[in-house]
Amino acid sequence: MRTAFDDGYRIEVYEGLRDLPLFRPEDLEGELNAGVKVWKEKIMNADAIIICTPEYTHNMPAVLKNGLEWITASGEMADKKVLPITLTPHEPRGEWAMQSLLFSLKTLNAQIVAHIPLYKNELTKEGEYFVIADELADMLGEALSLL
Predict the structure, then answer these.
(1) Alpha-carbon distance values, 11 to 16, 21, 117, 119, 142 (Å)
(2) Most Cβ neighbours (<10 Å): which of 28, 32, 83, 112?
(3) CA 92 vs CA 46, 87, 101: distances in Å
């Protein structure tokens, strides 16, 4: 998606979630881990957030949940426009992951502009990128315009 929509948007892919320590509420009382500080700053400084996630055991991945837990009490996601997307092999797995993600985003007071379940059979892999059909690109473009 980064290359398909580069003309109208500046999209930064954040890959630091896997480096965050396991959230424990007592850790909020001391000096925050450097990775947690970066994560919070990225969220605060973003005009909008796109979360694209797979599904693991009918849920969002633990690493994403952990990242969201680090910003629960501090409010970085409050009123932030968010477009959640799930990408799974087939239905209904994406629906369960999306429901889990939506529950967390609502708790964080995020402004959910739309939500999109994607399935791998809708995509074609070419090299290291996935190619999406024109209709799907139009739908994603419409969702991005809401951000």
Answers:
(1) 15, 25, 20, 22, 16
(2) 83
(3) 31, 11, 15
The DSSP result for 24-43, as a single string, is -GGGGGSPPPHHHHHHHHHH
* Domains of the chain and any CATH numbers: 17-145 (3.40.50.360)
Closest CA to 104 of 63, 144, 60, 74: 60
DSSP code per residue over 130-146: EEE-HHHHHHHHHHHHT
Average pLDDT over residues 4-26: 83
What backbone torsions phi and psi does residue 37 show, to the nearest 5 degrees? -60, -45
**pLDDT score of 117 more than 80:** yes
pLDDT band at 1 (very low <50, low <70, confident <90, very high): very low
